[in-house]
Amino acid sequence: MQSADIEVALEQAEQVRLASPYTLKCGQMIKNRLFKSAMSEQLGTREHNPKPGLATLYGRWADGGIGLSVTGNIMIDRTALGEPKNVVLDEKSDLTLFKTWASAGRKNNSQIWAQLNHPGKQIPNFICKEPVAPSAIALARGLEKGFNKPRALSESEILTIIDKFALSAALAKEAGFTGVQIHGAHGYLVSQFLSQRHNRREDKWGGSLQNRMRFVLAVYRGIRDRVGPDFPVGIKLNSADFMDGSFSEEDSMQVVKTLSSAGIDLIEISGGT
């Protein structure tokens, strides 16, 4: 076979692979292997509902043939925004606007998942005077200039946040999103709980890796209880934080195995803070 023929054959094989469907653990099928990772669009209204531009944007990706699009940074708590103009999905949201967004993202048999997030202490200081985190540890290396030192969460507050994740997931399903993704990477709250650098708690939510992953497991199980066994639930997880004494590759692999055993449908690997 000539080299040109080999190149054509490889290209055809790659096209077949990318075009092939993928069936999730929950039984739902993604039509191909084209995946759009989350980006924070900051296209929320003053009331933190989605602007019409989000439906336009995700509708275009759906028309283009994407198998799965993940939205950017939908916050579960309107008192905890990672950035200005974040969209929030809670009991005060206008679901009509979310339904329009989800409907556009479902065109052409595409899937659109809502990425759910709580920033923890990664809230700019002009938005929040006293953010919350697993432990009262400030961001360092110059970041303390833009982010205030957090207050450590009480256990009752931890349980409330878990419930907020579950509520947002249930509302996403009601609005017509075809799945949800937990944001567990990039130094936000779930990532903070997993990090031994940022989580210095001495109760059941901190210390050993088993304890530090208790929060993300509780979030997943809380969501699963609200959306049922057939609704896709994924997570964005760091391969590592790339910081000394934080969240290592070995830690990440253990969390991957634990979440997989718990039944999570898709794990997107990222990294850093």
Descriptive account of the structure:
The protein has about 270 residues and is α/β, with parallel strands linked by helices. Strands 3, 4, 5, 6, 7, 10, 11 and 12 form an eight-stranded parallel β-sheet that branches. A two-stranded antiparallel sheet has the order 1-2. A two-stranded parallel ribbon has the order 8-9. Helix 2 packs parallel to helix 3, helix 3 (about 95-105) packs across helix 4 and helix 4 packs parallel to helix 7 (about 215-225). The longest helix is centred in the middle third of the chain and has 21 residues, at about 155-175. The termini are far apart. A hairpin with a 5-residue loop joins strand 1 and strand 2 (about 30). The protein is about 35% helix and about 15% strand. It is globular and about 60 Å long. The chain has eight helices and twelve strands.
Largest sheet: 8 strands, parallel
User: What's the pLDDT, averaged over the residues?
Assistant: 94
Number of E-type strands = 12
| Class by alpha and beta content | alpha/beta
Gyration radius (Cα, Å) is: 19 Å
The helix count comes to 8
Query: Would you list the SSEs in sequence order as H and E?
Result: HEEEHEEEHEEEHEHHHEHE
β-sheet strand percentage: 15-25%
Which consecutive residue ranges, at least 5 long each, have pLDDT under 50?
Answer: none
Silhouette: globular
Q: How far is the first residue's CA from the last residue's CA?
A: 48 Å
Helix content range of the residues, please?
Answer: 25-40%
